[in-house]
Structures are given as structure tokens and as C-alpha cells.
Design brief:
alpha/beta, Quinone Oxidoreductase, Chain A, domain 1, Rossmann fold, 2 domains, six-stranded parallel beta sheet, 16 strands, 34% helix, globular, binds NADP nicotinamide-adenine-dinucleotide phosphate
């Protein structure tokens, strides 16, 4: 089968399609024939050699996708063959087929297309865990979502607005800000404009919850905006641009990584939290409970993922370059 094996790090052109043997499911595993693969920002970082949670190279990139179970290993209910599923895993989805433990192939959400299922798992679980499980978002609270037109961002805007909060999105262009408003946000600001912090303060007068994935000055400004009892949840830091051979970038990265100072939090009665879905994979029962709550909510609320662009599987390098360039909105998918 065809797969993208990450052997060396660097430019998107390191992503080369090659023939590899089909993986065989062992006991407790299933093999999924993928229809779509989702691109995650974490895979851009992995490609650059900057992602701590990535396995050791060489390995097949890819944390999520959707498809159909075609074979099961010993101990797995054989009636699962033919089931439509979404897959969430550490690696393996930049391929025609992937083998995963059976609990990582979750029955597809029926109200969504297979494209939408491939765009769902990582973004919506991350946003839900941040907003609901950690920040315990309450009806009527004011929420800021950073990189709000992106994958996690659009999910965060949709979930928070349907949960009855007033959402303010930050996005990297006026067009992206329009998209965020169209998803139900009370308002959106282009945070590449110089006066965005002041405008956000005037617009909100302070906020209760922040879903933060950018880092640096965006993180620091959002922290300053929190009302007493406010919570900020850090789920990423896309603006950090570490270059191995550039010591000045090491210093900028050190400066821009989100930090917490307990005495500052005590003075403001605010909370800083963080999440990483990958490490939660070691808690399958907990994840499953949360996922079923999320499934029920999006089905009832008729929420559908924003799919920004679809690339043919062979064009994975172009898909990476597109996401990296900040032009993408919502989820970018590869079609097999
Ligand atoms: N904790 C978790 O479990 C988890 C799970 C999934 C994703 N994440 C993190 O969440 C973030 C979003 O992931 P995603 O896959 O949905 O990607 P994405 O939001 O679709 O793409 C990243 C976005 O970050 C924004 N950004 C701000 N400064 C940037 C810079 N200097 N360079 C590049 N992008 C910049 C851009 O939006 P604007 O142009 O609008 O600023 C860009 O579109 C990433 O940091 C990712 O690592 C965390």
C-alpha cells in the first residue's frame, strides 16, 4: 500500500509517498481502510522534528482519519468488519490503511459525512476537553478563542456558542474573522492589526474563559483580559517558530512559551490550565465517556465541521505547505 513514511525532518518535500507492506492487526486491533486523512498542525511540527509526542522515526505520519474496518485481530468482535469509523491515534494515518487498537476506531457519527468524520475527532475533542472538562464553561460567560478560524478554533467557536456563551474570535485576516462571525461568534478581530488588544478589551470589558492555541504575546494579552474567576486553557502554541540552527529563535521560543506564576494568579483569582489529547489516549475509558457526551451534543445541535480544503493523498506536501502558510481555515483533509 502507499504511505508517507517520515524518515527525515524538514521542508514539506520530505513527505514522499512510498510502497510499504499492509499492516496486519494483532489481538485486540483492527485494520481500517481509510477514505480521508485529517491534517493536524502537530504533524507539521513532527515533520520539522519539533513535536515531543511523536514516535521515533521512521514512522508513518498521521493522527486521524475516517474509513471502514476491513479486518480484525483475535479477540475483536468480527461483526465490526464493514463498520464506518473515525480513527484517532499517534501515527499511521498518512496511508491507505492503518492498524489501531480497537478502541481507537470509534463508530462514525451518523449525522456527519465521512469527510466530516475525518475532520472531527482531534479538533472537537480538544475544544470540548478545554472548554467543558477543564474550564467548566457556564451559560452566559464570555469566551475568547484564538486562531478561531483554524481547526481547533472553529470547533471551539461552534461548541461555545451552542453552549450559550458569548464568543469572541481572534483570527489572522479580515476574511477569517468573517468566517468566525458566520459560525455564531458575537464578534471577531483580526489580530494581525496593531491595536487588536485594545479593541478586544473595549469589545469585551474582560472575559471569563480563553481557549488558547497561539502562544507569545497573544497568550500574554489574553491572560491580562481574564476577569476574576476566569480560566485560560492552553492547547497549543502555533506561533512558536523554533529553528534548530538559529540561537535567537531558541531565545524567542523560551520567551513565548506560555507560563504560569502562582502569585500572579493569586492576585487575580484566575486559573491557567493545559491539555494534550495525545497523553489522554492512555485513559481510554475516560476519553470514551467524554466522546459520547460530545457525540450526543453535536448530533443534537446539528454541528458540522468546517472543511477548508481537500487535497488528493499524493499532494500531502502541498497540503502541509498550505496549513503552514496560515492560509487554511477549518480542517484540511487528504482524500484517498
Ligand atoms: N492540545 C491538544 O491536544 C491539541 C490538539 C490539536 C491541536 N492542538 C494545537 O492547536 C493548534 C491548532 O491546531 P490545528 O491543527 O487546528 O491548526 P490550525 O488552527 O488549523 O492552524 C494553525 C493556526 O494557527 C494560527 N497561527 C498563529 N500564529 C501562527 C504562526 N506564527 N504560524 C502559523 N500559524 C499561526 C494560524 O491562524 P491565524 O492566521 O488565524 O492566526 C493558523 O491557521 C496548534 O497549535 C496545535 O498544535 C493541540
Amino acid at each position: 500500500m502507499k504511505a508517507i513514511v517520515l524518515k527525515r525532518t524538514g521542508h514539506p518535500r520530505v513527505l514522499e509517498l512510498q510502497d510499504v507492506p499492509e499492516p496486519v492487526p494483532r489481538a485486540g486491533e483492527v485494520r481500517v481502510h481509510l477514505r480521508y486523512t485529517g491534517i493536524n498542525y502537530a504533524e507539521i511540527l513532527s515533520r520539522k522534528g519539533l513535536y515531543r509526542w511523536a514516535p521515533k522515526r521512521p514512522y508513518v505520519l498521521g493522527m486521524e482519519g475516517s474509513g471502514v474496518i476491513e479486518t480484525v485481530g483475535a479477540g475483536v468482535d468480527p461483526s465490526r468488519v464493514g463498520q464506518k469509523v473515525m480513527v484517532g491515534t499517534q501515527y499511521g494515518c498518512y496511508a491507505e490503511k492503518v492498524v489501531v487498537p480497537q478502541e481507537r476506531a470509534i463508530s462514525a457519527i451518523e449525522s456527519l459525512t465521512m469527510e466530516e468524520n475525518a475532520a472531527f475527532g482531534v479538533n472537537y475533542m480538544t475544544a470540548w476537553v478545554a472548554l467543558i472538562e477543564l474550564a467548566r464553561l457556564q451559560v452566559g460567560e464570555k469566551v475568547v478563542v484564538t486562531a478561531a478560524a483554524g481547526g481547533v478554533g472553529t470547533a471551539g467557536v461552534q461548541l461555545a456558542t451552542r453552549l450559550g456563551s458569548q464568543v469572541y474570535g481572534l483570527a489572522g485576516s479580515p476574511e477569517k474573522a468573517d468566517l468566525v462571525r458566520s459560525l455564531g461568534a458575537a464578534d471577531a478581530i483580526d489580530y494581525t492589526a496593531p491595536d487588536w488588544q485594545q479593541r478586544l478589551r473595549e469589545m469585551t470589558g474582560g472575559v471569563d474563559v480563553v481557549l488558547e492555541t497561539v502562544g507569545g504575546s497573544v497568550y500574554r494579552s489574553c491572560l491580562e483580559l481574564l476577569n476574576p474567576f476566569g480560566r485560560i486553557v492552553v492547547a497549543g502554541f502555533a506561533s512558536l517558530n523554533l529553528k534548530r540552527w538559529n540561537p535567537a529563535s531558541w531565545w524567542r521560543t523560551w520567551r513565548d512559551v506560555p507560563r504560569a506564576r502562582l502569585m500572579d494568579l493569586a492576585r487575580s483569582s484566575t486559573g491557567i490550565m493545559a491539555t494534550h489529547l495525545g497523553y489522554l489516549l492512555d485513559e481510554p475509558a475516560r476519553l470514551q465517556t467524554v466522546f459520547e457526551r460530545l457525540r450526543a451534543f453535536v448530533t443534537e445541535q446539528e454541528i458540522r465541521p468546517v472543511i477548508g480544503r481537500l487535497f488528493p493523498f499524493e499532494d500531502v506536501a502541498a497540503a502541509h505547505a498550505f496549513v503552514e502558510s496560515r492560509q487554511s481555515v477549518g480542517k484540511v483533509l487528504l482524500k484517498h
